[in-house]
Amino acid sequence: MTSEATAPSPALAPAPAGTKRRFSMFSSDQAIIQFELEGQRFSIHEALLDHHSKTWRKAWKHTTGLAACKACPHTVVKVSVWGFRGFIHWLYERKIPGTTTLEELKWSSEDTDADKEMFAIDLNTKLYFLGRSLRMEKLQDDTMTWLFDIYRNNDRVPSIDLLRYVGDYLEDTCVDTFFGDLLSKRKAACLQLLKVADEYLPEACANNICESLLEEMLSEEKPKSEALELRDYHLHSESATSCACHRKFMDARYCISK
């Protein structure tokens, strides 16, 4: 097993206040890591991954030096091409890919049956999974803030497919807790979701989902009158005090009341 330590890279040099670090795909002194998803190739600067995660090499079985790494290009599992594009967007642009930035990822309404908002919700939930897999607390807090904000401004609940994904891959996480609390608070939307499950899903699958939803709806852990506060779903890491959403994170009034 190779050492996690790497030689200092020019890409990690501190940037002046208010500016972004600059990376060049043509620079010979900035290592590039290759990834492949669904036949598409992606490139990310090694130093940028190092900046956000201490465990990405272990997670992706990367050995130092492209020539020595038999796993390159790395295959990313449980994340779609769109999710990985969103991950790269977050790394380089330092912002979550929301409904107003999907076009920057070359998204088109013809690419999916979901509307733009639901597509962005799904994408950011997958980004949370990626952040958790790589122990990127900043990414987890940023996506959690975005998800909280989008549900704060509408009366939706997560889709059945999204709830299944969270149950399979994000159990006992902040997203799992938030979705459960949201289901408990928005019972009318839950009943509609139960109706959809009963009509369109296989009986066993529908029963499992209905049982889970009803359990959340009947839970007495969080009274329905209690507002949901963003701070309860953050990791309370250093990233929470340094990100752009710090004001929302600290503001107890930033909540979901219905």
Could you walk me through the main structural features you see in this protein, from its secondary elements to its overall organization?
- With 258 residues, this protein is mainly α.
- The chain has two domains: 31-77, no CATH class; 78-256, no CATH class.
- The chain is 46% helix and 7% strand.
- The chain is globular, with a radius of gyration of 20 Å.
- The chain starts with 31 loop residues before the first strand and ends with a strand.
- This is BTB domain-containing protein.
SSE layout and pairing:
Blueprint: E1 32-37, E2 40-45, H1 46-52, H2 56-59, E3 74-75, H3 81-93, H4 116-133, H5 137-152, H6 160-169, H7 174-185, H8 187-200, H9 203-217, E4 228-229, H10 239-242, H11 246-250, E5 255-256
Parallel strand pairs: 1-3
Antiparallel strand pairs: 1-2, 4-5
Number of helices: 11
Helix share bin: 40-55%
User: What oligomeric assembly is this protein in?
Assistant: single chain
Percentage of β-strand residues: 5-15%
Structural class: mainly alpha
Main sheet?
A: 3 strands, mixed
Give the integer mean of the pLDDT values. 76
How many strand segments?
5
Overall body shape: globular
> What string, H for helix and E for strand, traces the elements in order?
EEHHEHHHHHHHEHHE
- CA-atom Rg in angstroms: 20 Å
Unreliable parts: 1-19, 238-243
Distance between the termini: 51 Å
Count of the separate structural domains: 2
Strands of the widest sheet, in order across it, are 2-1-3
